């Protein structure tokens, strides 16, 4: 089980500054996500940004997690980046965009996108982001290091319940992906691609969510799908 994550360059230690909780927490590996993958029965492997050999990764892993992180730069997708974003490292965005593009040609490989990962899924499928929720939603603080409720559109895929989130951006248009959950303020909380064996994006952090179905249960779904793929 490959988990995409940031590797901070030695000349960019400012990523460890604690005055921005989102950047500080997303610059180092999240043990909860690693442990959750193992608890679900997977064998997690950290996958740092790479400049070569991306095609080979498809053959080496039975499933992929695109984890949370900072905010995407949207110029590669034809939109100017908002002035208040905390931009993700260039190497990470470039690598994950290329890897996700290749995975789109392999619908049989299970993929889970978490927070930033879900936003990148939407962008790579022609979607558009709301780049700064404080500009549009008075409820934005409910999505920043807080628990809130989500309402499922398809309980067979994602349950309704309480989740833990930490984001100031959201998917505004999911492109060719299907919206399967929203919060009460209308923010898209989960998307999927029914044409794939398992291709799910969630805006919350399942590794920090105490609700079993929406927390560890989401990771378990991915691991189960990866095992089926590995045995096929």
Structural commentary:
The protein has 232 residues and is an alpha/beta fold. 26% of the residues lie in helices and 22% in strands. The protein contains six helices and eleven strands. The chain has a nine-stranded mixed sheet with strand order 2-1-3-4-11-10-9-6-7, with helices on one face. A two-stranded antiparallel sheet has the order 5-8. The longest helix is centred in the C-terminal third of the chain and has 16 residues. The two termini are 16 Å apart. About 5% of the residues have low confidence.
Summarize the structure.
26% of the residues lie in helices and 22% in strands.
Q: Number of helical runs?
A: 6
Uncertain residue segments? 15-19, 22-28
Portion of residues in beta strands equals 15-25%
Largest sheet: 9 strands, mixed
Strand order of the largest sheet: 2-1-3-4-11-10-9-6-7
Shape: globular
Radius of gyration: 16 Å
Briefly note the structural class of the backbone. Answer: alpha/beta
The SSE string, one letter per element, is: EHHEHEHEHEEEEEEEH
> How many individual β-strands?
11
The average pLDDT score comes to 89
Q: Give the end-to-end Cα distance, rounded to a whole number of Å.
A: 16 Å
Helical coverage, percent range: 25-40%
Quaternary assembly = single chain
